[in-house]
UniProtKB/TrEMBL annotation:
Protein's name in the database: Cytidine deaminase
Major enzyme class: hydrolase
Entry-linked Pfam families: dCMP_cyt_deam_1
Active-site residues annotated for this sequence: E55 (proton donor)
EC number of this enzyme: 3.5.4.5
Function description: This enzyme scavenges exogenous and endogenous cytidine and 2'-deoxycytidine for UMP synthesis.
Organism ancestry: Bacteria, Bacillati, Bacillota, Clostridia, Lachnospirales
Metal-binding as UniProt keyword: yes
TM region positions: none
InterPro entries named among the record's database cross-references: CMP_dCMP_dom, Cyt/Deoxycyt_deaminase, Cyt_deam_tetra, Cytidine_deaminase-like
Signal peptide start and end residues: none
Obligatory cofactor(s): Zn(2+)
Amino acid sequence: MDNKELIRKAIDGLKYSYAPYSNFNVSAVLVAKDGSIYTGCNIENAAYTPSNCAERTAFFKAVSEGVKEFETIIIVAGKGGKVENITAPCGVCRQVMMEFCDPKTFKIILAKSEEEYKEFTLEELLPLGFGPGDLIEN
Ligand SMILES: O=c1ccn([C@H]2C[C@H](O)[C@@H](CO)O2)c(=O)[nH]1
Ligand SMILES: [Zn+2]
């Protein structure tokens, strides 16, 4: 899938976002190195803290199925499912990305539409990140 198709898939996934408290809908499409694709939406909770971001939903779906090498994530978001701006991943999600992705090559695409998007590496969004390499000798 090219970037446009991936962004379309992310926008389509906004309909699954469960966000009755913030009304801020987020959808992510995670592309693994083997070509497989994992979607994710934010899932809120009446107790608030159990809420999960769209990005982590996608990562945890993939890892729970044995997939741990990733190339790209596409993120779209907006109040009431209307995407008006690009939205960057929260710090917790950036840290989860750091666990499984090469900060120099993992691409984070923040999209407003199929035509308008910005692309970053994980390193750009999480400079000097702390990751597995700091604990495990490779
Ligand atoms: O990058 C982001 C930012 C926020 N959220 C979710 C968490 C919560 O459900 C709602 C408002 O913060 O948006 C995400 O899923 N991803
Ligand atoms: Zn997050």
